[in-house]
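Review this chain:
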Amino acid sequence: MSQIAPETTAIDEFESSHQLTASDRCDSCGAQAYIRVAIGSSELLFCAHHGKKYQDKLTAVASDWHDESDRLLQDNR
């Protein structure tokens, strides 16, 4: 028996993609990325520091903002 998967949009794929890992690096400084920003068909990765630094400017043009910086607090428990 086969199942038909519902169609997904680029935003759905962006939101449902895997978590950021240690191999995902900040486009500004090279530190581990915790924030992924979609702008058009491109994506930018930022560490928590640079993501917060540029958040006001980026949210104005971003189609999606994925923030996993809360994982920084979980890792220190």
Notes: The chain has one domain: 22-75. Residues 48-59 form the longest helix (12 residues). Residues 31 and 72 are 13 Å apart (CA to CA).
